[in-house]
Amino acid sequence: MPVMVELTLKIDAATYQAMHGQILPVARKAGMLFHSGREVEGGIGVVDFWPSAEVFQAFLDGPITDGMKAMKLEVPDDVKITPVLTADT
């Protein structure tokens, strides 16, 4: 079942824009269907759609966490996964 993933990256807009181009292709290859980011209090709010919670969790447990740690950034601690009926692209 597709899911909507919401989280906050504790980074500024410049850092987000600098890393966006590197992470987006990795996320797409991992199965991400749609990505959006916006400035919020405390960082960048992200809303993504993934084919399943398991596919997203594999991405979170691997490439994104590894990349963020390598960049000395905090891994999101407010991940919210919500099942959705459809996630059309």
Report the end-to-end length measured between terminal Cα atoms. Answer: 15 Å
- Report the β-strand fraction as a percent range: 25-35%
Instruction: Kindly report the spatial arrangement of strands forming the biggest sheet.
Output: 2-3-1-4
Q: Considering DSSP H and I runs of 4 or more, what fraction of the residues is helical?
A: 40-55%
Total tally of structural domains: 1
CATH class reads Alpha Beta
Any idea of the CATH topology? Alpha-Beta Plaits
Enumerate the spans where pLDDT stays under 50 for 5 or more consecutive residues: none
Number of helices: 2
CATH architecture: 2-Layer Sandwich
| Overall average pLDDT | 93
Radius of gyration over all CA atoms, rounded: 12 Å
Q: What is the succession of H and E elements?
A: EHEEHE
Question: What profile does the largest beta sheet have?
Answer: 4 strands, antiparallel
Structure description:
The protein has one domain (3-83): Alpha-Beta Plaits, CATH 3.30.70. It has a 4-stranded antiparallel beta sheet. The longest helix is centred in the N-terminal third of the chain and has 18 residues, at 13-30. The protein has helices at residues 13-30, 53-70; strands at 3-9, 34-40, 43-50, 80-83. The chain has 89 residues and is an alpha+beta fold. The model has no long low-confidence stretch (mean pLDDT 93).
Write the layout of secondary structure elements.
Elements lengths: L2 E7 L3 H18 L3 E7 L2 E8 L2 H18 L9 E4 L6
Antiparallel strand pairs: 1-3, 1-4, 2-3
Helix pairs in contact: 1-2
